[in-house]
Design a protein that fits this description.
Shape: rod-shaped
CATH architecture of the largest domain: 2-Layer Sandwich
Bound molecules: adenosine-5'-triphosphate, magnesium ion
CATH class of the largest domain: Alpha Beta
Structural class: alpha/beta
Strand content: 5-15%
Number of domains: 3
Distance between the termini: 124 Å
Radius of gyration: 57 Å
Strand order of the largest sheet: 2-4-5-7-6
CATH topology of the largest domain: Heat Shock Protein 90
CATH superfamily of the largest domain: Histidine kinase-like ATPase, C-terminal domain
Helix content: 55-70%
Amino acid sequence: MLGVLSSAVALLVFAAENYISGPTAMREYIEKCAVGLACAMAVSLVLSCVLQRVVSGPVIRLAETTTAIADLGDYSIRVKGNYTGELGDLYVSFNKMLDTIQASSNALREARELLEKRVRERTAAIQQEITEKGKVQADLIQAKEAAEAADQAKSEFLANISHELRTPLHGILSYTRFGLNEATTAEREELWKFFDNVDHCANNLLCLVNDLLDLSKLESGGMTFVAQPADLSHLIEMVVDEFRSMCSEREVSIGYQQSEAATTVLIDPDRISQVIRNLLSNAVKFSPPNGTIHVELRRAGDAFRLSVRDEGPGIPPEELETVFDRFVQSSKMKSNKGGTGLGLAICREIVGWHGGRIWAENNAAAGCVFHCELPLARPDSPPDASETVLTDSFEALR
Ligand SMILES: Nc1ncnc2c1ncn2[C@@H]1O[C@H](COP(=O)(O)OP(=O)(O)OP(=O)(O)O)[C@@H](O)[C@H]1O
Ligand SMILES: [Mg+2]
């Protein structure tokens, strides 16, 4: 604008000097007009500058404030200035609008934070649920596997029982049939043999049924134990004596030694005799002719240890533990003389009830040794106290 005004003034001066060739007064007049015009233009220029500052300053400030808010995202910024009239109204309205936006923004932020908190809580709850469901699922799988294993064990057990029952029953039936067919023709001696075989098979059957009953009672906790002080050494001697004739029949020698002065313990003598009987019957059964069985009783820490050592075939190392399972026989015996495979399972249950332990080892030279430890003092509570009958003397010994 300044350029335009200067050009207009210069043009007037130029016109006055070059094109107006009138009298001097005229020229002076024109020159004065030009100067006046220039002054008026200068004044109007200054005025317009001042007016521009007054009118557009607040608008510029408003624009700057808007930009700052947009850049910083800070709705707490306010446009400042005391104006009256329309500008003042504009500022007040603008600041009010910012108040509303700030309040909405705060409410929005709080709502978002609340939502995030709830999402976090729900996520944690879902994860917890998933973990618990996983656990329940794992428990269910475990229970299912246990049920399947039990089912499998039951089937095997039934198959074993059927097999074991069938063998003596077959014997009884076939010898009875022979006897019936040949009752009139056979010699007395031959008939006696038939009856003897029937008697033998029937006894085997009875032993098996007794063993099964014992085992099922022991496992279900239905067996009644009568604990009383008993001389263990005397008990062993009595059972060893029972086996002497069988040993001499099989040309096996048997010896018993013990190194303790007092061997009285709190036990169920009948059940412990049953254990000793099975260990000795196994030792005799598996001893070679001219073999020797050593029975020994000694102190081992807080227990008495009974050991039955033989010179038989021994037990494969990997089967030293499994021979204590029901119906399990050592692979060395399967084609040979073994029994039903219940004896050691029963022994383990009985010894376990007494708070003791029973296990097998192989001898360095030949054969194996079965150890059975019975604690000097029984644990405070037997495995299932409800099934136990304690005598007065048991209480006295405590
Ligand atoms: N002294 C031993 N020497 C070698 N093997 C043995 C001996 N004692 C036990 N065993 C093995 O352990 C198996 C299990 O013995 P366990 O006494 O449980 O059953 P069993 O004698 O076969 O039958 P029963 O139920 O009539 O006692 C035996 O069949 C045999 O294979
Ligand atoms: Mg046996």
